[in-house]
Structure formats: structure tokens, C-alpha cells
Amino acid sequence: MIPVVPVLVAGALETLVGEPPTRYHPVAWFGRLVAPLDREWRRPLLVGALGALALPLWAAVAVALAVVAAGSLSPLAAPAVAGLVLFLSTSLRRLLAAADSVAANAGSDIDAARDGLLALAGRDASALSSGQLRSAAVESAAENLADGLLAPLSAFVLAAAVAALAGAPPLPVAAAGAAWVKGVNTLDSMLGYPDKRVGTPAARLDDAVMWLPARLSALVLAVALADPRSLARTREWLDGVPSPNSGWPMGVAAAGLDVRLEKPGVYVLNPGAALPDETAARRGVRAVGVAGVTSYAVAGLALVALGEVSAWF
């Protein structure tokens, strides 16, 4: 079975549920496996490399076995479980709501906006102005489009394609691909800081994994903002962004909205423009939402096309 149904299931759950509470979220459970690595080691790079290889692979294998086991019980259970895995591997609606709340509160209740930013970005918000808070909200929404949605979704589609063309069962392989990418991203988010040598392998692996999703997210966001030229403008600012990937969706947001997005002391995107006002910031968050819906639609169409192609062989 070509896994179009799981994409529909994941998209429906994202729309209706948003995200389960943290205590019941498998990604939080995975984080508990990662947490013991976060300490001083005699050989941090070796330990980090082993963790970066083993933990996401463990998650992928567990997910694949769960989908296979579900399929042995019922033909309908396998796509349902695969869809649930894809849903749990993605994150968009809750973060979009948090970003919109920060953008809305920045001008009227700056303390609430600063508190709300804690759910979005790991930066000190105590001295940020209203414009800088809105900037952080737009940056976080745009970056999350890449790592929270496009990364697991594109991994699901690519893994399904490889499995189908190789004659392997696409459902467990596709679900495993999404889980593996989510595991890599979770490792990076917990350990991938300059002062944590144990997290360096995870950070480098995440950079490689995110290369394609970051650029796909920039493309789909440019479509959502109806500004294809924003892709070309983004190239002007990428050298100033430490990450090799996050500058793409954030830069497209800055260009498409014609605003300055900045992380004080780190980078500035579109430096000649003004910081976003409430209207621009909330438009940016809505555009990320549109890009997310578009991504689900494109993924579904790609899997339908895959089904047609695989039927020829």
C-alpha cells in the first residue's frame, strides 16, 4: 500500500488535535533516553557519535516493528499507526498558535509576550523590544516549518518512495524514516550547543538531514507569501546566519514580508527594513500555516504519483 492514507491521517490529527500533552508525547519519552548523555564525558565526541547513530535508529526500528505488527492484525491498522507516527513526528499548530500570541501581545502586553516566547525560542527575552519579540515569533514559526513539519514529512515521502521502488513494504519504512528524522532533530535540540561537545555529532548530523527540508520550506513559504523573488533575496543574508539551514525559511519570511528579522548579536535578515509590526508578524505566522497545509497537499500528491509509477513495475 502506498502510504497516502497516513498523510491524510496525520494532517487531520494536526488540524483537530494539534499536539498531545508533553507527558503523553513519545518525543518526550525519547528525550528521556537522550537526557543521560547530557553530562561530561572523557570522550564526548565518541559518546555523542554513538548516541547520534544508535538512538534515532532505535526509534526508527521500534516504529517500523509497530507498523508491521499493526498490519498483521488488520489491513487498516497499519496505515492508521503509520499516520499516528507521522502526526507525532510533526509539530506545527501549537507553535503557530504560540507565535501568533506573541505577535499579538508584543504591543499591548509585553510581559506576556516575553513569557510566551519561552515556548518558541531559546533566547533571553527580558530586554527584547516589541519589534524584536515579533521578529522572534516570525523567525521561530518559519524555522519550525522546516524542522517541525517538512523534515519528517519529506523523510516519510522519500522513504516510502525508496521502499516502493525497491519492492519493500512502504508503510513501515516511511514511518521509520519520519521517526528517525525526528530523533535526530530531538538530539540536536537537546545537545547541539557549542558548549556541549557531546552534542557536536548530533548537530552535524542534523545539519545534513535538514539541508533539503530547509530549502523546501523556503520554497513553499515563498509560494504562500506569493513572492518567488524572496528566494533570490534570501541568498544575500545567508552568510550572516550561523546555521547552514535555518536562514532559508527565515530569510524568505523577511523578504516576503519586507521586514527586518534579527536575533540581537547573532544575525540580521533584511537589514534595510523595519522590524515587523503586529500586522506583518501575524501575516507571517498565517503564511507559515498556509505553507504547512500546502506541504501536506504536495506530499499527498507525491505519494499518489508514486503509486502510479510503482504500478508500472
Number of beta strands: 2
Q: Going across the biggest sheet, name each strand in turn.
A: 1-2
The helix/strand series, from N terminus to C terminus, equals HHHHHHHHHHHHEEH
Major sheet description: 2 strands, antiparallel
Spatial shape: globular
Low-confidence stretches: none
Number of domains: 1
Helix content: 55-70%
How much strand content do the residues show? under 5%
Radius of gyration based on Cα positions: 20 Å
Ends apart, CA distance between termini: 14 Å
Mean pLDDT: 93
Overall SS class: mainly alpha
Total helix count? 13
Protein name: Probable cobalamin biosynthesis protein CobD
Pathway: Cofactor biosynthesis; adenosylcobalamin biosynthesis
Subcellular location: Cell membrane
Transmembrane segments: 45-70, 76-96, 287-307
What does this protein structure show overall?
It is a single chain. This protein has one domain. The radius of gyration is 20 Å and the shape is globular. By secondary structure, the chain is mostly helical. The chain has 13 helices and two strands; from the N terminus they run ααααααααααααββα. It has a two-stranded antiparallel ribbon. It has helices spanning 4-16, 26-34, 44-73, 77-89, 93-105, 110-117, 130-166, 170-191, 200-209, 211-224, 230-234, 247-257, 278-311, and strands spanning 261-263, 267-269. The mean pLDDT is 93.
